[in-house]
Protein 1
Amino acid sequence: MADVNRGNRPLSPHIMIYRPQMTSVSSIMVRFSGLGVFAVAILIVWWLLAASTSESGFVAIDGFLRSGFGDILLTVATWALWYHTLGRLRHVLWDFGYCLDVKVAEKLGLGMFIGATLLTVITVLVV
């Protein structure tokens, strides 16, 4: 039977006292960025379908995507795409057994935020 001596075991960290680490925050952000990219991909598919089917439908979705809000949405989606890509590359490094040290993993997490931001600025300026 399992050891039932619960007095000597540490308690799990509680949500109110647990301090998020860079590795956990970057991992969660990779998942959120993937969901965001998927949501924007639906808008892009809608735009393509409207372009191939209906002029009035295309004008509506194209107007939305070219509006100020659409520009912000597509810029954030570009950041999310770059961030998600860098997160996947980080996991490839980890799969090969590289950069598994905690300090290096934290630097990679910070590098993902900085890298995604720089790549988004370059993408917005070039495109």
Protein 2
Amino acid sequence: MDLPKGLAGVIVDETEISSTAGGKLIYSGYPIAELADSTYEEVVFLLWHSRLPMKAELEAFRKELVSEMVLPSESTRLLLYVAKEPQHPMSILRTATSLLGTTNNVKQDEPPKILAKMLTLIASIVRIRQGEPMKEPDPKLGVADNFLYMLTGKKPTLEHAKMFNTVMILHADHEFNASTFTARVVASTSADYYSCLTAAVCALKGPLHGGANERVFRMLEEIVDNDADPIEYVKDRIANKLKVMGFGHRVYKNGDPRAAILRDIAEKLAKETHNEKYFDVQIKIAAFMLEEKGLHPNVDYYTALVYHCLGLERDLFTPIFAACRTAGWLAHVMEQRRESCLIRPSSEYVGPKAREYYKDHYVTTKGDI
């Protein structure tokens, strides 16, 4: 049997949440480009309810999410200890997400409360690791605006808030990616929400899924700090069979629709924060990779520079990705729960056959004498 590696191209289930069919990303029927100027909470409502909210519903939803962006005292106390450990932030997030499942009401907590607390958890990890005090949400701000404020300690400008809303929207969901599918598998066992999110974080922690944006900026730093020629740098990586981070996608062969939107944001922020040197390098590499390899930038390529320009440290990029994607994870967990069907695929066995235990056991034990 000729099996596709990594289930590539295999349709394993149906979903009403998002689609990448035809190289286009849609959330519940709406093209991502049309949603990019919306607000994060409006898109979350769409992912969870398959429709846009009425004005009153949206305001109530926003207030509910912001009001829940506070951690229980037990979570905060333990987080102050755990987050200071010299581990990668994704390792801290993995443990801290599981911790939420022990310091909250697991049976009664619902997605709005869980999403709000995940955002606060991630912002708190960032602040603690930077030796800065944790910030409480501002009820006058939206969800994404508050998250950026709680990350940086500074109230965002209207323009920065709009940009960050767009970034969070673009990362909110992406069909059956590795971490989302992991969450659905766990949800199919009727496990609680926190277990599903912990599993999703574990999947995102792997460098072949999450972490790409972090490695993109490491590449940019190596080029800029060493005053290297970006094209020669890339050629050298290709010659040594090393991956050029931020390019190519299993689904998008003609370009990631999110990357085009993020490119504009990265360019604006780079000019504003005097990081043009990084953006110039990105443009040169992108042109070379398209001409020589036919590869387009993916969502991680420009996200890395956006996060840097907003004052975020490189090793925090993936936890912030997790914060954005939590809305999508929860949407898929809810959808999988409604199906009430255990995910249990079959495999093709390719190991040895027709072995005889007593015969082989006699031979091996005799040989040991």
Protein 3
Amino acid sequence: MSTIVLAGLHKRFGDFIAVRNTDLTVGAGRFVVLLGPSGCGKTTTLRMIAGLELPTSGRILIDGEDVTELRARQRDIAFVFQMFALYPHMTVRNNIAFPLKNEHVPRHEIASRVDAAARMLRIEQLLDRKTGGLSGGDRQRVALGRAIVRQPKAFLMDEPLGTLDADFRELMCLELRKLHNALSATTVYVTHDQSEAMAMADDLVVMNQGDVLQSGPPHEIYHFPATVFVGNFIGSPPMNFLPVDGAVAAGDERVHLHGAPVAVARCASAAERVLLGIRPEHVVIDEHGPLRGRVIADEYLGSHQVFTIETSAGVVRARASKDAGLAAGAPVGLSFRQDRTLLYDAATGRLMPGAHTGAVHG
């Protein structure tokens, strides 16, 4: 298990800033997911950790050693790509053994490591088959086996499940997490898929336009997104954001949404323009609710329904019981769980400090 530290990591391609002055610590044995939309800088960050890209400035340390200028092969890191990069004319056994042969590992040790990796990945029956005829999922397992046998300091994975269909991708998420637990290895994983990220990560790092916007455990980022972007990007459906009437002062516990009074967690600072953020599951459909609206769409999801409601303050999504019994056009009242309301400075898009920064309850 190794610790990876990024200190002021910056990468520029001409006039384009791909990664901006990033400080990040990946703890030993943690499964850390870099998450964000295409072009946010997550893959560039991973490639700099791997030594496939050199930073414009900043440092990369692995177990305290500065590896910023070291070549990829000198960093003792295994990289798993979206495209498996296997040798189709070679057997599974020889594909997995390939990096060990290049390192001149003794033959008996190669055989032992390959067999152990195959057992772990449950592909022993494939060892003597050519990789060219394997399914996408089996080829992914072979690529993982080739990384595992190296026994590296850390695993770096760049959208390794991106080419798999949805059902198999879900299965492989579970398999990767079990594999990580078995190896206790430090893993940095890149994806744009929040479902993958939430299912596997010990820690999430949300990026956009080269910046790290927030990092921490998935539940913390879900419940307390640091910016409007994070609240919109994490969660399906995303967080609701509604404009508050007028300015908010420190100590306020009530705001108005287009005239409707709403109780909120006590605010510790002031702002001229404010957005109220609330997750759909914390919106209560309440006939006496102060915010009035009309259902314009509903989505039945088996265990629950998601209603889209048009109000005078804006469109609100609310998650309710599968038996809520509301149809399009139905008038409704809405209230919000006070302890789950968040306030954002509309000018900066950042979360305003307040009582909500405590633990999550209920």
Protein 4
Amino acid sequence: MSKNVLVLADVRDGELRNVSLESLAAATRVADGGAVTAAVFGSKAKDVVEELSHHGADKVVLVLDEKLDQYTTDAYFQAFKQVIEHVEPDVIFTGHTAIGRDVSPRVAARLGCGLVSDCTDVEVDDSQIVFTRPIYAGKAFVKKAFREGTVFATLRPNNIPALEADTSRSAVVEELEVQFAEDLLRTVVKDVVRKASEGVDLSEARVIVSGGRGVKSADGFKPLQELADVLGGAVGASRGACDAEYCDYALQIGQTGKVVTPDLYIACGISGAIQHLAGMSNSKVIVAINKDPEANIFSVADYGIVGDLFEVVPMLTEEFKKVLVESK
């Protein structure tokens, strides 16, 4: 049975995040011939209409209000709720990002709908939607079937491949004016100060080079950054490195940090505490570099290198440079 699916597009600094395109792919799979609608908030929402169209959106609803240029819970809650009431979808997808994790449960609770969070796969089986999500810090997976009513789902980045861009597609565009209850807009964003380094978004990076206490200092992250730059990836860290003030907590990966699923995860000087493994153990390929051959990180690694990261990482960087030069 075909379904109408709504995707809340996640836009940062005027650019569409990859998880929004992945959500459109999941929406197309679930719609089964029904309409796929994307909602975009903010005064510059028109800038991403074409990209949404090319990746599966049949219709794009624009809420061109400057109150939505920066995320605030109150404004997004009111706007998202009104968009849902206008579109009347059967399924609503958001990314499992800071925005999706905050606004989806709030709106779902207000509308009396179900919510499945942190999904790594979505499929249709015998006319019902089946969501797959990790439990017990990624040690097991559970499938949840949904049969009737409206359901929200947040999708973990880097798990559902985005559709190939089809430049022949053109979505219907609609501008929707939403009404805000001003007395409920309790937060105003005056300025945004970014403490994390610029570059590839950690939660969506295909390659992550991560450091632990073994990097020994803030300067110890420099060779990791060089390797990440060569591979077009991002730098992450364990909580131990963050607690030691080697880097900012914005880079923390683990149970109390970001959960990532890159194609390649290179763990440098990380022992492999269970809290850290919860944030990266579902990476497609894991390479561990550690002087201790008994380090727990090797238990989840596909490839292990026993050695000093300050010797191994520069060697890897040089070898990758050679390979990339030869491939051009």
